[in-house]
Amino acid sequence: MTDRIHVELHHGAATDVGLVRHANEDAYLAAPPVFVVADGMGGHDRGDVASAIVVEEFAHLDAERYDAEAAAQAVTATLGVIQERILAFGAEQRADGAAAGFSTGTTAVAALLVDGDSGPHWLIANVGDSRAYRFSDGELAQVSVDHSVVQELIDAGTITPAAAQDHPSRNVITRALGGSAMPGGVSGDPDYFLLPLAAAERILLCSDGVSGMVEDAEIGRILARCEDPRDAAEQVIAAAVAAGGHDNATAVVVDVVGLAHTDTYDSAAQRLSLEQKLGALP
Amino acid sequence: MSETTPGPGPSTSGSWSYRTGDWFAVFGSSVTIVLPESQRDQVVALWALVDGGAGFDEVLDGLLSAGLSRVPGFVLASTDGSPTRILLRGAGVQATAVAADGDVVLDGAASHTWVERSLADLTSLQVDLPVAEGAAAGAADLPIVTGLVRVGRINLPPAVAAPLADEPVREPAMDSVMEPVIEPVMTPVSEPVLESSAGGAHLADSPVDAPAAAAESAPLDDEGPATEVMEAISGDPLSDPLSAPLADPPADPLADPRADPLTDSGPDGDPVADLEPVTDAVPAPPGDAPEGWVTPWDTPPAPPIPPIPSTPPGAPMSPSAPSSGPAEDPLAEPDTPAVPSSGLPPMGGETEVVPAGWPPPPPAGGALPDAPPLPIGSWEPIGGGAAPAAPDAGEAAPFGADHDGATAAGALSSPAAEPAVGSGQAVAKLLISDGQTVVVESAVLIGRAPEARRFTSTEQPVLIAVPSRLHEISSTHVEVRPGTGADHGSAVVTDMGSTNGTVLVQPGLGPEDLKPGIAVPLIPGAIINLGDGITIQVTRP
């Protein structure tokens, strides 16, 4: 681990309750090298508690950098703890007199910087329809695959991705954390994605309040326009609210700033680049 | 359908009869599969699967592992319980069945993919296969329990013309060189046999007459040993007249002293003629069989092989399972926040080939051409339904496992002979020309800057980056992983939709361009060329 490549991450995050909902049940964590967005569900069933549990548990992960395999296992274990806590919370609420149908749940999408065999990678994990995008070479591409009814319809070739935007059940997800009393119970199993850092200079994690309101092309334009990740996150949320703000909207933007071996980084290189910036060199 | 009594009746005890022909048939205890002559190589692999006790879906996976388009025709039938599932494909492939809902005629040419039916309480099934021009189809019905044979027609239960009071002693008079070539065309012999499950006591006369006529008018035609099995077996027709079990050494009814007519046959005796007595012997069964050999003629009163469900009953077999029940309610009320992931929404444009309730098989290796395309790079079945891991792959009976009740139970009851992908068993080693060496134990993704999409924490792929100065190699170029189904034990390579393609050179074969998304099994010694000077040599682990 001595030759670990130093990676500097800059990030920005923003969230908004939107124009329709009364409470913001989204939650996010931006604690390099761990980034998470969770979209709580349930309205009166306290989806905010479920998404807060996600953030709390992922916060325990941020201390160290894992290799890819250990990271996926750690994330799986964390999601297991989250699942148990949410189910316990639901049981507690029902015991305290909440309706028998009380059920809270949440999505989660997480990005962790991990060490792979061939350099640092992004490990992305998702449960539900909160998304991870990557922005590379000026192009936005969705990384995660939603666990939603419309995604399954798209996979099955029944509907086109364009039709999915207006599909009546576009908000029905097929996997979630918690959600004990949902019909049939749902799986909380995550899907994982592993990307080399070079192929993902900028990562966007967002809830469906963003991806459901703003077209991917527009998100791409915003990410291209805003160099600072904090601006980028705020602009993305502003666009989601401007588009109607039907749902809570949350975005976390992470930039990979430095991609260099720590032992090759020296002050000479830094000075050189400064002189270039000042125009001292031709 | 659900009201009818389930459970294997006499018809599902797994005992068949066949007529000789060009096609290959693999008869297993729970699955029977028929393939045309062109699929010779595939038959051998499928035999291993079927004999290992693989279930219907598993055999189907193996059958389609190279892609549906490579298989011009096939018949696949489950025989280990009710309902019986049957799949047909190909021109001239026809099945006639009698089941709870009456007579059913299926034509393999009726669909571009395949025709599938689930038949509850199947009482008889006959599958006719096209005969190549110039070839003479056999006209005698030969009994078989398990094994690999050439067939032109198969019947379940055996289309054995069991003559009773009629003329029980006729057959010793048979000429040893006669070959019943004339087509007796008895209308489904199987039906009478079935309706009297306790033995064909009240058989109509007509089916009995047909073989008799065949015997008496037999032209002297030594050509075309009707029981051409595999080379190894066809060599000595006498030693193995049933020609069935490839790997059952004691399979030699001749050893049974009571099978007198057989020994009377001269050395030139055509196996078909030799077998004729077996059919007639039904009223007086020979009784004890040689050790380890299950006699098909024991069948009607007491099925020789107790039907051992090698596929867990229920789940994928049940046609009554709602295809999309759980998903439909949420569709109606968009406010419902979640539905079970198990409830896949109905596939678009359901056709007759995929009846409701039949979950699509997990894409093995190459995706089914007719299945919705998987996203490139998705090597996990969408929907997360991982193939069930075999409880003990070692239990799966290899060649030579016998079929007597005791050992078969252990072997056949293991539902899947295949460990899941990423089982950790090394199947190959990759020597990459940039100096890297990779052992293939799970999926290995190779490319300029490879990415892994949609995997689970237990099936972590290995990412191998290779240099590509000219950028000829795509970021995720190829995948090499342990094969499943028929490719179990070897590595398979899949081009992940690379920009410039992948060339595969297998030992003894010319260069082959990989088709994106189609898995190709690798032979040790194969060379995979990614371009930009990067080649991958495949060796044994």
Automatic annotation (TrEMBL), chain A:
Domain of life: Bacteria
InterPro entries hit by this protein: PP2C, PPM-type-like_dom_sf, PPM-type_phosphatase-like_dom
Every PPM-type phosphatase domain range: 10-256
PROSITE patterns referenced in this protein's UniProt entry, alphabetically: PPM_2
GO MF assignments: protein serine/threonine phosphatase activity
Protein name according to UniProt: Serine/threonine-protein phosphatase
Organism: Nocardioides caeni
Organism taxonomic ancestry: Bacteria, Bacillati, Actinomycetota, Actinomycetes, Propionibacteriales
TrEMBL record, chain B:
Name this protein carries in UniProt: FHA domain-containing protein
Biased composition (Pro residues): 298-316, 357-375
Alphabetically ordered keywords of this record: Phosphoprotein
UniProt xrefs under InterPro entries: FHA_dom (IPR000253), SMAD_FHA_dom_sf (IPR008984)
PROSITE patterns for this protein: FHA_DOMAIN
Keyword Phosphoprotein assigned: yes
Residue ranges constituting the FHA domain according to the UniProt record: 444-504
Keyword Transcription applies: no
Bias (Low complexity) ranges: 203-218, 236-246, 317-327, 387-418
Disordered: region residues: 196-418
